[in-house]
């Protein structure tokens, strides 16, 4: 269903911006940014707008760019869990 993918591609960034624009005083600024990243990523996963690895990488990159966490922490688990192919 191509329409679902197109809607997801547009809806993800729109929801991201909307969440960042709405004040959420109960969250710290980093938690607020993380919530926005989560919604964008989840939107892409649910609508299957892009292959699953793409939003996973997008969320990691956004976490670093937005200052949610340093790159060493964000990318630490990917060092340990490299895909080694079928056993």
Gyration radius (Cα, Å) is: 15 Å
Task: Look at the helices and sheets and give the structural class.
Answer: mainly alpha
Which blocks of ≥5 consecutive residues have pLDDT under 50?
none
Shape verdict: flat
Strand content: under 5%
Write the layout of secondary structure elements.
Layout: H1 2-21, H2 29-47, H3 53-65, H4 71-74, H5 76-80
3D structure, described in words:
By secondary structure, the chain is mainly alpha-helical. The protein has one domain (2-75). The protein contains five helices and no strands. It has helices at residues 2-21, 29-47, 53-65, 71-74, 76-80. The protein is flat. The model has no long low-confidence stretch (mean pLDDT 86).
Annotation keywords:
5 helices, 87 residues, mainly alpha
Put the structure in a nutshell.
Helix content is 70%, strand content 0%. The chain has 87 residues and is mainly alpha-helical.
